[in-house]
UniProtKB/TrEMBL annotation, chains A, B, C, D:
Name the record gives this protein: Triose-phosphate isomerase
Organism for this UniProt entry: Oceanobacillus jeddahense
GO molecular function terms listed in the Swiss-Prot or TrEMBL record: triose-phosphate isomerase activity
Taxonomic classification: Bacteria, Bacillati, Bacillota, Bacilli, Bacillales
Gene3D superfamilies: Aldolase class I
Source superkingdom: Bacteria
InterPro entries registered for this protein in UniProt: Aldolase_TIM (IPR013785), TIM_sf (IPR035990), Triosephosphate_isomerase (IPR000652)
Amino acid sequence: MQKEKIKAPFFVVNPKSFLYGNPLMELARKADELAVHHAIDILFTAPSTELVNIVQECPNLVVTAQHVDDVSPGASMGKVSIESLVDIGVQAAVLNHADHPLSLSTLVHIVQRAKQKGLKTIICADSVLEAQAIALLQPDIVLAEPTEQIGQSQISSRDYVTSTIKKIKEINPNVLVEQGAGIRSEKDVEELFRLGADGVGVTSGIVKAAAPIEMMEKMMQAVSTINRERK
Amino acid sequence: MQKEKIKAPFFVVNPKSFLYGNPLMELARKADELAVHHAIDILFTAPSTELVNIVQECPNLVVTAQHVDDVSPGASMGKVSIESLVDIGVQAAVLNHADHPLSLSTLVHIVQRAKQKGLKTIICADSVLEAQAIALLQPDIVLAEPTEQIGQSQISSRDYVTSTIKKIKEINPNVLVEQGAGIRSEKDVEELFRLGADGVGVTSGIVKAAAPIEMMEKMMQAVSTINRERK
Amino acid sequence: MQKEKIKAPFFVVNPKSFLYGNPLMELARKADELAVHHAIDILFTAPSTELVNIVQECPNLVVTAQHVDDVSPGASMGKVSIESLVDIGVQAAVLNHADHPLSLSTLVHIVQRAKQKGLKTIICADSVLEAQAIALLQPDIVLAEPTEQIGQSQISSRDYVTSTIKKIKEINPNVLVEQGAGIRSEKDVEELFRLGADGVGVTSGIVKAAAPIEMMEKMMQAVSTINRERK
Amino acid sequence: MQKEKIKAPFFVVNPKSFLYGNPLMELARKADELAVHHAIDILFTAPSTELVNIVQECPNLVVTAQHVDDVSPGASMGKVSIESLVDIGVQAAVLNHADHPLSLSTLVHIVQRAKQKGLKTIICADSVLEAQAIALLQPDIVLAEPTEQIGQSQISSRDYVTSTIKKIKEINPNVLVEQGAGIRSEKDVEELFRLGADGVGVTSGIVKAAAPIEMMEKMMQAVSTINRERK
């Protein structure tokens, strides 16, 4: 189901390359159920090889690529184009993750082309200043995540979170702000939303949990609670 | 159908990112039929997003990734691991294409890991010297293709072809040598095999032909003729 | 002579790697004379190997590195640190040129460290949007230069020039805006200043001129004229 | 003094970017004296900004760049060309260090151009297989250094050292083999030569020694001892 626009509060399940094949599909199917059950927007990312299967089985997820290359269909080899993502039903792509740093001119170019083709963009930012610069580029979502904290077991400091959100919205009030990094429980999810986040994204907090699917359920329950409160 | 080993003469259909979705699948289905009909090994490459569909519909092709990253499953974002390719039934991967130049130490590392996991490797080489260095790394196939000729409308010179094959086999007699670049017709395919190539790979010669599927049929007929002669 | 701050109108001689050794030094010595004669700020860039000689012979130039790496002195190999540039008397560095595209997080980091160490920064921008994002990072100078026009024989369009300047100053009124690309004569220099540029930078217009030193003299005369008018 | 060919046993002082300005020059001057005193070939590397000063003051060193770019003089920005290195009297360049990994086709191209222009090349290799592939490219020196051991406090294992040397010489008996990584004393230097190394290179062992200049003296004394023995 193609979303016109992502609605806050939203949740992002980002299993990176920890999962593939059946374990990934199981997590995706459960996320799909919960998206319907809680009536919230859930972005679910996957490596490019896995995207088409998830799109086909999980119509209620905003299936999201973990990267997209700055190429048009043509003579490029081993690249993933915006066009091919849209063709298989992918709705969004993450850009500028620490594993795929992009130059500013590539970012400007991809965001523009993605808008034309109907692909939503989530751009990762490290510092507050970087997050502001990215907000200027008009992506759908800015993911504010200090690189040094990726994979850590503490959420970003309250100061980082609130100041980032405030300063990003000063530059562009329409952009959605996602917080990630260091989320380990449904309490962390709730806290980040109460600090003003539009969305929350989780990797290790789910894939390394004792019971990943149960943890994901609890976290989405927290999003649902916030959703009802904000209405 | 998992191949133990690629057999010469083999043919590589390499549509790069020119095709995706239905047009790509149509070409793949026809190649699958021809692989059975002529009883020859056909490698068919595709962007990572398309691989799973081709594997599922085309059991007689050696479905081949156009690139694979030097990562293990884990915290990497937007990367394609050897493990995830093998999991979906991909049998080979192209490495070191001009669009994804790899350092020598990365090449050594990926080829080693690919062997352990059962993924075949095709490594692109530019000059004769580069092709020899690559042959030392013990990939399954060396693709000898002068970078400056990619996409051109002339096959590599006879001298380049024969000297490359001779010099690669001096270093490693077991590696298969694929020739590409500038192939426009079934005659070019035949000529490259008569000059000693183990395999021939084609992009523009098929995707830019007036009738791509017919051209692919004629080229595979040429491979089949060579196959009978060599027996 | 260490400048506290670059003053508009300024001029940038950017011989890229066209010149080295004596021909480069000759141009630098003449630029040094003209900086004194016209009492204007002249930035003179050079490859890293040539910087120390220019600093020693040309005390009146703002000698400028063509790139600097995001490293501190230490275990890095073959990198140029801010500290080593400052140590030899270099006053500024160009960043994010199309030949050295940097990720946004690297840019943020280098600009911050450069400020602490007393090195001025000139950051290249391609599109207007990119120029605005860069202005947020608070460099000393934004060099607005559409990548596709580098080395061409036409200056950027009037629209590009005036809109870029206006939109950059909206984001950060203190940043200086340099225009480059396609400047072939002293008339082009004058026109860019009249359109509102704070500075003008030239490569091909000088190094490929029939008489490079004479052309540089005429261009600096144009800067001097503008300088007197603006007072 | 331009060397026709590096003679074994040779020594490489490689201060990376730990030193610059006066402390670097002091070390270089002492190395220059010792090169004359012991009549051995000493390669001395430095960041590109420092090379010209060392060449001018230290005529008995083989002054060596820590990297060189694959560009000809021209429109490239912030790059160091072979031509500009040769022009200032630099005699050699290190390539493919872990901080500057190069694709195989770039390596082939640079080594070829360096030969034409009279610049010697030292290429870093990680594994034995990589060292063999590099030996095929005909550089002057292969620096065999397992990446994971750079900066460590143990020399490479005897097995790594002897097997690397043997296998490299099988491929190309004319290439010189330098060993590095983990050298902490004159005893380590001696041991590596006794295991068959043609040259030994040191970074941390000198720059992090309690008394760097004295340590360098002792190490070169060890080279000198080996030199007399081998005659």
